[in-house]
Design brief:
The protein is about 30% helix and about 20% strand. The chain is of the alpha+beta class. Among the domains are: about 240 residues, Immunoglobulin-like, CATH 2.60.40.1670; about 130 residues, von Willebrand factor, type A domain (Rossmann fold, 3-Layer(aba) Sandwich), CATH 3.40.50; about 100 residues, Severin (3-Layer(aba) Sandwich). It is globular, with a radius of gyration of 27 Å. InterPro entries: ADF-H/Gelsolin-like_dom_sf, Beta-sandwich_Sec23_24, Gelsolin-like_dom, Gelsolin-like_dom_sf, Sec23, Sec23/24_helical_dom, Sec23/24_helical_dom_sf, Sec23/24_trunk_dom.
């Protein structure tokens, strides 16, 4: 029998889904006692080279308020050519084209290995083709009559872009350049709105500074007036913040309605107004890229990656996506957290308890790529006194309709089931089914979502309360005895993830500008599980003469004089040379033939870093530093400060470097957590 870990991995590879719990409590009351909600990370367009799309329409349930898609979990009567919907139990006849099906000749959508299947269709479910509008028809007549062949247009367009010059308008001393970004954006959105409604399109906004005039202005043109900081926002001293945010939100909603995404490429040494503009990309699925200059190779390579292609030679992007969730009657959907907007589609499977973007069973995601991942949150609504039949399963179906980059209309359907369990008698089985990595990311997304509208300390307190409750529920301990506290293997890493999350830039705004916080949060709520975990708890690799490279604890005890460390935080790649290694490198030992092994040691982290740099979007900032270097702060600010200036006595005994900080260490955090979890007064 496969372990839960293998089961979780198989489901992620096949369906692009990771659930917080892989065995669900069968009643509402027991589900709320689990603390972490039944929820999942879902990647709608997870790349599956082994999943070619089928070229026919999906078969839908005939009940008007259901319309679920035929799937491997449906009961089928092959003789009568009838199938029973596993959501509403409606019996439906197969269409005439299915007359030849039998137990040995089944269509793909009934085979268990095709719990995720993709259809190429002529029209979207419940949607008319974009060309149906009269206005657009006139647009296409104009296009066919007056536009030149594509290759000639492409050549002329390239020439025009090549002739673009820097704005020659003089900027007086002590002033900022006048930028009417809000107006320019309004023109771009309006043009697309009028010419290509409900058709895939991107607006690409390149900004080298904040908007300084017109609607959407973020700061005045006087340089003596600094752009708003977190301190100004907390003191309600950010004059243009509310008005500008409202303006860009209206713009984002206009774009989202038409399925157009807005990308922001902001390169400047100061803030550019991302805090006010973040909704443009967050609500439309667009990219945000932040850098120091458009001339850096970092920006150029990141921008090239926007246009990367898949194994079929198509762009890795999809447009105008509508994602719908259907659930079996024991479940309801509470909401989604990710680059989406609500389509306000009410139905029997929509919960009144909202988490994230809730109150709907359909969301619009204007732009998707293979790594775009949404956090989906559910509620068990089955009553405590209405037991689920033995062997019953809860079912969730994700129906994602989108325009492929090759202009095909496609529908991807993923149908996922999990067993119900009685939390009274099977609590240990439920505990074993806990996916602590997925749960940590899903709770982190809830925290980040709350941080957008609540005070930072309130969010941290909420996270702490949830962690304490989870430890009280599943920890093994004697009352008022912290030393007796133990967590099972399936939960043992969860408190550690929460410790690093509390210190992360997603919840801590100290030392980050409002623009930087917006940028970090933007990427966190759209990346898949692996990348999200790296953001919460960076990966640290050690290189030494004593063996091959190995992952080590993200702890100050890992910083040793004769080691090279490679830290991946998602946003930065830091190569840190220990004190001894740095001295040898300065002495030039790597240039001497007899120290070839030292040269190879220096090269190893560079090669591994290059591998990461080649695949990540956006490209991480590359930092090469050493003991005592100014940029060593990137590493020192992330590691667990198990040794600080307050307990220096062990330094110099191969136990790691002390960190100059007043932050608590993981050990102190865990001791405090244990004390609160076992307290009889809690």
């Amino acid at each position: 029998m496969a372990t839960y870990q293998e089961f979780i991995q198989q489901n992620e590879d096949r369906d692009g889904v990771r659930f917080s719990w892989n065995l669900w409590p069968s009643s509402r009351l027991e589900a709320t006692r689990l603390v972490v909600p039944v929820s999942c990370l879902f990647t709608p367009l997870k790349e599956r080279p082994d999943l070619p799309p089928v070229q026919y329409e999906p078969v839908l349930c005939s009940r008007a308020n259901c319309k679920a898609v035929l799937n491997p979990l449906c009961q089928v009567d092959f003789r009568a050519k009838i199938w029973a919907c596993n959501f509403c139990f409606q019996r439906n006849p197969f269409p005439p084209s299915y007359a030849g099906i039998s137990e040995v000749n089944q269509p793909a959508e009934l085979m268990p290995q095709f719990s995720t299947i993709e259809y190429i269709v002529q029209e979207m479910l419940g949607l008319t083709k974009p060309a149906a509008s009269g206005q657009q028809g006139r647009v296409f007549v104009f296009i066919f009559r007056f536009l030149q062949p594509v290759h000639r247009v492409d050549m002329n367009l390239t020439d025009l872009l090549g002739e673009l010059q820097r704005d020659p308008w003089p900027v007086p001393q002590g002033k900022r350049p006048l930028r009417s970004t809000g107006v320019a954006l309004s023109v771009a959105v309006g043009l697309l709105e009028g010419t290509f409604p409900n058709t895939g399109a991107r607006v690409m906004l390149f900004i080298g500074g904040p908007p300084t005039q017109g609607p959407g202005m973020v700061v005045g043109d006087e340089l003596k007036t600094p752009i708003r900081s977190w301190h100004d926002i907390q003191k309600d001293n950010a004059r243009h913040l509310k008005k500008a945010t409202k303006y860009y939100e209206a713009m984002a909603n206009r774009s989202a309605v038409n399925g157009h995404s807005i990308d922001i490429y902001a390169c400047a040494l100061d803030q550019t107004g991302l805090l006010e503009m973040k909704c443009l990309s967050n609500l439309t699925g667009g990219h945000i890229v932040m850098g120091d200059s458009f001339n850096t190779s970092l920006f150029k390579q990141t921008f090239q990656r926007v246009f990367s292609k898949d194994y079929n030679g198509d762009f890795r992007m999809a447009f105008g996506s509508v994602m719908e969730v259907k659930t079996s009657r024991e479940l309801k959907v509470c909401g989604a957290i990710g680059p989406c907007v609500s389509l306000n589609s009410k139905g029997s499977c929509v919960s009144e308890n909202e988490m994230g973007v809730g109150g709907t069973s359909q969301w619009k995601v204007c732009s998707l790529n293979p790594s775009t991942t949404l956090g989906m949150y559910f509620e068990v609504v089955n009553q405590h006194n209405a037991p689920v039949p033995q062997g019953g399963r809860g079912v969730i179906q994700f129906v994602t309709q989108y325009q492929h980059s090759n202009t095909q209309r496609r529908i991807r359907v993923s149908t996922i089931a999990r067993n119900w369990a009685d939390a009274q008698s099977q609590i240990q089985h439920i505990e074993s089914s806990f996916d602590q990595e997925a749960a940590a990311v899903l709770m982190a997304r809830l925290g980040v979502f709350r941080a957008e509208s609540e005070e930072g300390p309130d969010v941290l307190r909420w996270l702490d309360r949830q962690l304490i409750r989870l430890c009280q529920k599943f920890g093994q301990f004697n009352k008022d005895d912290p030393t007796s506290f133990k967590l099972s293997e399936s939960l043992s890493l969860y408190p550690q993830f929460m410790f690093h999350l509390r210190r992360s830039p997603f919840l801590q705004v100290f030392n980050n500008s409002p623009d930087e916080s917006s940028y970090y949060r933007h990427h966190f709520v759209r990346q898949d599980l692996t990348q999200s975990l790296i953001m919460v708890q960076p990966i640290l690799y050690s290189y030494s003469f004593y063996g091959p490279p190995e992952p080590v604890l993200l702890d100050s005890s890992s910083i040793l004089p004769d080691r090279i460390l490679l830290m991946d935080t998602f946003f930065q790649l830091v190569i840190y040379h220990g004190e001894t290694i740095a001295q040898w490198r300065k002495a030039g030992y790597q240039e001497m033939a007899e120290y070839e092994n030292f040269k190879q040691l220096l090269q190893a982290p560079l090669d591994d870093a290059q591998e990461i740099l080649q695949t990540r979007f956006p490209m991480p900032r590359y930092v090469d530093t050493e003991h005592g270097g100014s940029q060593a702060r990137f590493l020192l600010s992330k590691v667990n400060p198990s040794q600080t200036h307050n307990n220096l006595y062990a330094w110099g005994q191969e136990t790691g470097a002390p960190i100059l900080t007043d932050d608590v260490s993981l050990q102190v955090f865990m001791d405090h957590l244990k004390k609160l979890a076992v307290s009889s007064s809690a």
